[in-house]
């Protein structure tokens, strides 16, 4: 079966630093996959390579069987790869509605059918999925931090992605918000594949069917939550440190 995403010997060096080193990775359609690992392990660099925010030093990225290594980021969005990163990228002086409308418009324009009714419907649907319908008219910058993260997820969903990449989505969320987030990702995974960088081990163990552990730019281990919990190398590198990130 063709994987949704595959990387082959994917490598990115920053000067002498091997941020990502020869990573062979495979993500099946419909998965919720978590990538974990200590700070500086290369997780953000790795997903940035997949979505095209940064270029690899060598190696290949294949999406739905097609080599996308040379494809610019905006073309990858059009191919179905959406992402949110650690640093929020919302426009604080626009309303929640308008932030999400920017994403919907991007999708509609790339499909060549920008109708105002489709724009409104697309925004409405994305806001409903993340539970922000009531906040549509609020300036995004006036929202609580947890809600700003949800706006970002709505912006990702509005692109109707095949793959949604979330980089530390629960960072800064309250316990109640984390619960809501877990339910949201389960719902998103009913029609998209989710690749998640996450430091909160409860979230990882609850959501991920498989976990990829990175360390020093390489894949240290991969397996089910039970396999990862029982893996000695992982415990030494990460879990055993008692670190929560
Ligand atoms: N643009 C850059 N220029 C130079 N070095 C970089 C750059 N981006 C990342 N690095 C380095 O590459 C290594 C991997 O960083 P990366 O952010 O991918 O790790 P990470 O696993 O996501 O860490 P964290 O959990 O702290 O977010 C680190 O040593 C980092 O300092």
From TrEMBL:
Source superkingdom: Bacteria
Pfam families for this protein: ABC_tran (PF00005), BCA_ABC_TP_C (PF12399)
Residue span(s) of domain ABC transporter: 5-241
Gene3D superfamilies attached to this UniProt entry: P-loop containing nucleotide triphosphate hydrolases
PROSITE patterns: ABC_TRANSPORTER_2
Signal sequence interval, chain numbering: none
Family annotation (CDD domains): ABC_Mj1267_LivG_branched
GO molecular function, one term: ATP binding
Coiled coil: none
Keyword field: ATP-binding, Nucleotide-binding, Transport
UniProt name for this protein: ABC transporter ATP-binding protein
Organism: Neoaquamicrobium sediminum
Lineage summary: Bacteria, Pseudomonadati, Pseudomonadota, Alphaproteobacteria, Hyphomicrobiales
């Amino acid at each position: 079966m063709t994987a949704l995403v595959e990387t082959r010997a994917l490598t990115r060096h920053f000067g002498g630093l091997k941020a990502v080193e020869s990573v062979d990775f495979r993500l099946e359609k419909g998965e919720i996959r978590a990538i974990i690992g200590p700070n500086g392990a290369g997780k953000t660099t790795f997903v940035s390579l997949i979505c095209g925010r940064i270029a690899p030093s060598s190696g290949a990225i294949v999406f739905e069987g097609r080599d996308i290594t040379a494809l610019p980021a905006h073309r990858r969005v059009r191919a179905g790869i959406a992402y949110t990163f650690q640093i929020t990228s919302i426009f604080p002086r626009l309303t929640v509605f308008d932030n999400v409308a920017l994403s919907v418009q991007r999708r509609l324009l790339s499909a060549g059918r920008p109708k105002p009714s489709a724009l409104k419907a697309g925004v409405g649907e994305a806001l409903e999925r993340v539970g922000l319908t009531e906040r549509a008219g609020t300036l995004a910058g006036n929202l609580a931090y947890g809600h700003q993260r949800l706006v970002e997820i709505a912006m990702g969903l509005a692109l109707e992605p095949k793959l949604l990449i979330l980089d530390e989505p629960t960072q800064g969320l309250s316990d109640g918000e984390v619960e809501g987030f877990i339910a949201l990702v389960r719902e998103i995974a009913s029609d998209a594949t989710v690749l998640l960088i996450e430091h909160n081990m409860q979230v990882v163990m609850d959501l991920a069917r498989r976990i990829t552990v990175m360390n020093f730019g390489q894949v240290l281990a991969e397996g089910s939550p039970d396999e990862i919990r029982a893996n000695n190398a992982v415990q030494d590198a990460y879990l055993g440190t008692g670190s929560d990130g």
